[in-house]
Amino acid sequence: MILAGLDGSDSSWRATAYAAGLARRQNATLAVAYVQPVLGAATALAGAAVGETTQEIADELLAALRESERRLSDVWRLDWRFVTVQGDPFAGMARLADELRADAVVVGASERAGHRLIGSVAVRLVKAGRWPVTVVP
């Protein structure tokens, strides 16, 4: 099982494409994961609206994956599934990697400057050291 993190960013789409190629070459199943953000105290008042928005994002990502599969049907020959969980992106990806018994985790490099100070999801996954992690720029 190859686990790829997808949040809609360019680097996460590249990571998903890389993970799809890896899964295809290894005859493995690809799990594409979107971690829906947890509502903070400030957004709790808008809870239903934010919850609907994160679900809409998940639905749009799944639709885009299905469209890619349709367009690339001659090369996209692999078993895959889309999973979504709520939570912190690092904790969500780590939990999924453990639950799915992932052989590898593939994520995109962070595009946010602040992550150099506090650490990106990719860096935190690498530091966890529980699975091979590939970070795609």
Number of folding domains?
Answer: 1
Tell me the overall shape: globular
| CATH topology group | Rossmann fold
Radius of gyration: 15 Å
Corresponding CATH superfamily: HUPs
Helix and strand pattern: EHEHEHEHHE
- Work out the oligomeric state of the chains in this entry: single chain
The CA-CA distance between the termini, in Å, is 22 Å
What is the CATH class name? Alpha Beta
Structure keywords:
137 residues; alpha/beta; Rossmann fold; five-stranded parallel beta sheet; 5 helices; 47% helix; Universal stress protein
Describe the 3D structure.
With 137 residues, this protein is an alpha/beta fold. The chain has one domain (2-136): Rossmann fold. The chain contains five helices and five strands. The protein has helices spanning 10-26, 47-71, 89-99, 115-118, 121-128; strands at residues 2-5, 30-36, 80-86, 104-108, 133-136. Strands 3-2-1-4-5 form a five-stranded parallel sheet, with helices on both faces. Strand 1 (2-5), helix 1 and strand 2 (30-36) form a beta-alpha-beta unit.
Secondary structure: elements and pairs:
Elements: E1 2-5, H1 10-26, E2 30-36, H2 47-71, E3 80-86, H3 89-99, E4 104-108, H4 115-118, H5 121-128, E5 133-136
Parallel strand pairs: 1-2, 1-4, 2-3, 4-5
Helix pairs in contact: 3-5
Summarize the structure.
The chain has 5 helices and 5 strands. It is α/β, with parallel strands linked by helices and about 140 residues long. Pfam families: Usp.
